[in-house]
Amino acid sequence: MNYSALLVEDSMSLGALYTEYLRAEDINVTHVHYGADALKELSNWQPDLLILDIKLPDMSGLDILKQVQHSHPHISTIMITAHGSIDIAIDAMRSGAFDFLVKPFDAKRLSITVRNALKQKQLLELVTQYENSLPKGHYQGFIGDSLAMQSVYKTIDCVANSKASVFIMGESGTGKEVCAQAIHQVGNRADKPFIALNCASIPKELIESEIFGHCKGAFTGAHNNRDGAATRADGGTLFLDEICEMDLELQSKLLRFIQTGTFQRVGGSKEEHVDIRFISATNREPWEEVKLGHFREDLFYRLHVIPIELPPLRARGNDVLLLAKQLLKTYSKEEGKKFIDFNPQAAAMLQAYDWPGNVRQLQNVIRQIVVLNDASHVEPSMFPAPLRPLAQPQVQLQTKMQVETTKVDIDTLVQVASRDLLSEPTQEAHTHTADQQRIQPLWLTEKQTIEGAIALCDGNVPKAAALLDISPSTIYRKRMTWEEQAERSS
Asked: 360 and 326 in contact (C-beta within 8 Å)?
């Protein structure tokens, strides 16, 4: 593997000598004489190795080292000087240098130091690769190690440093703003502003001013010039949440802004230019909004460059419990409560529930539990509706018995009906005629059992199907059959 090195040495003769030493190690060398030249080179490309003289004509090598460690910490740096002292060596090592060489030194001494520096660099890269390959339980505000979320984390890492527009999709409460902030924080604009606007919460008459700003007297109440989100986000990220709620007329102005980077304030004539990374989000299906005429197709293609779809909480497996435990810990500390965990029944209920409101609903549920109760473990009785079972114990037991014995009841009824149809009438049959008349049709018994299970599960068909040990599609198919029977009978 060929490595690259930037040599910063003001002496022409020593620079030529060290260059030959390094090339003998199969290292590509770029030699500069001044600190300013070194910083210019580093802004254009990053070497594997930086060999830096401390005493340069225009600046101190230690100052360059500090800048390099801040901007490019992955570069291995070896400091060199003819004025060696323990204090200088300590300062260099504290500032992040790998090693320190005192002139004069020969090829062997430089070779050993360079090889050690590159070996450490290789080890650090291997450690980083290994850490990146591990499932992340926590990532930039997200909690969850499910495969669905690992895919989201990986996508964020890939797009963070790009200027390409990102379009985040997902149900309400899945964490779209958290995702947008993660992209900003991981990327190269992290030290610049992150400005978020919710297009659904701002009145139609004011949203243009909120985005582009306005001039004094532009409309009633505009007493002063005001910067909009576009100006405040210059150099950073502008996050437009619920973008599909934006008025069509404003969408055309936003499209021009994205294309040119220029805009005019409301009531103004001067064009302003900004450098912004756009991130948008919606809980709708954006292409459906385009087909319905609610969202401009050209704006869709401008914003929908890199799509990220956030999975609903019900599709994230064990993440529900991870999130719930973290929220329980946080809220318990805030409220001065002693909760430490969920008991097994409560944990099972958390994972069985569909969470239509996703993480936001989970936050509200855990907060309500903590505020209204105080114990070491959360119990099912502490859950608010609709998580808490609504049926009375006797009704629950009756329905549970019905659910657990559905298959047995159906098989028994089929056997009884078959036997009665195939056998000759007997005195015993006449004796039990009254009992037999109380037997309902098989489809009706099945319907009552299934509907009872669905009611017990608060309308959650997949959960009811799991308890009945049948597939959800079977329930949907049977429901269609019952509806058709009802129509024919009417």
From this structure: no
> How many residues are given for the chain?
490
Q: Which residue has the tokens 């069509």?
A: 248
Tell the burial category of 455 from Cβ atoms under 10 Å away from its Cβ (0-12, 13-18, 19+).
middle
- Rounded Cα distance between 337 and 122, Å, is 48
Could you give the CA distance from residue 111 to residue 117 in angstroms, rounded to a whole number?
Answer: 10
Tokens of 290: 């385009």
Q: Which of 189, 200, 291, 297 lies closest to 244 in space, CA to CA? A: 200
Q: How does strand 27-32 pair with strand 341-342?
A: unpaired
**Distance, CA of 295 to CA of 439 (rounded, Å):** 58
- Do the Cβ atoms of 336 and 297 come closer than 8 Å? no
**What gap in Å lies between CA 461 and CA 467, rounded to an integer?**
10
Cα torsion through 448, 450, 454, 456, rounded to 10: 60
CA distances from 274 to 66, 125, 260 (A): 30, 36, 9
User: Which 3 state secondary structure label does DSSP give 282?
Assistant: strand
Q: What is the reported pLDDT for 445?
A: 80
Q: Cα(480)–Cα(234) distance, rounded to whole angstroms?
A: 56
Q: In this structure, are strands 271-273 and 262-264 parallel, antiparallel, or unpaired?
A: antiparallel
List, for residues 151-204, the tens digit of each pLDDT value: 999 999 999 999 999 999 999 999 999 999 999 999 999 999 999 999 999 988
218: DSSP letter: S
Q: 192-248 pLDDT, tens per residue? A: 999 999 999 998 888 999 999 999 888 888 889 999 999 999 999 999 999 999 999
Please tell me what DSSP assigns to residue 189.
T
391: left (phi over 0), alpha (psi -120 to 50) or beta: beta
* Phi, psi (rounded to 5 degrees) for 395: -65, -40
- In this prediction, residue 460 carries a pLDDT of 76
Token reading at 54: 């401390």
Strands 76-81 and 99-102: parallel
Contact between 189 and 180 (Cβ < 8 Å): no
d(CA 180, CA 165): 11
How many other β-carbons are positioned within 10 Å of the β-carbon of residue 267?
15
Q: Which helix (H) or strand (E) holds 27?
A: strand 27-32
* Distance separating alpha carbons of residues 174 and 171, to the nearest angstrom: 6
| pLDDT means over runs of 10, the chain (490 residues) | 87 90 90 92 91 90 89 89 75 85 88 91 80 73 91 94 96 96 96 95 90 89 90 96 94 94 92 96 94 95 96 92 95 95 90 92 95 94 77 40 45 45 48 58 80 80 75 75 70
